[in-house]
Amino acid sequence: SIYPVISGTILLKKKGKQKESQRQEELYNFENTSELVDTGIYRYIRHPLYLSLILLTWGIFFKNMDTNLLIISILSTLFLYITARFDEKECLAFFGEEYSNYMKRSKMFIPFIF
Q1: Whole-angstrom Cα distance, residue 47 to residue 71?
Q2: Rg (CA), the chain
Q3: What is the pTM of this model?
Q4: d(C-alpha 76, C-alpha 67), whole Å
């Protein structure tokens, strides 16, 4: 789960061209980009940072299989999916057609699948 978060964060910082108050004040500085990043891991998936959290949650579950951890894993995956959908709406509003085209050539979490 560490690779998607490190790769995604580095690419956002390098290629995202952060600018003060460019998008939303609620975004972290590395998320507040004015350029769409669609290279590296972002070429295949749109949400590597959320993917890393999903992988971490399920990794914890598979390490110690328990009903409570299963429920937490399912709920966290659901909440991260919902968060990703809201993020995509914001990106569509900001980047427009460019992001719409990007959505057609990439997957949400799992390369070539979903």
Answers
A1: 22
A2: 15
A3: 0.82
A4: 14
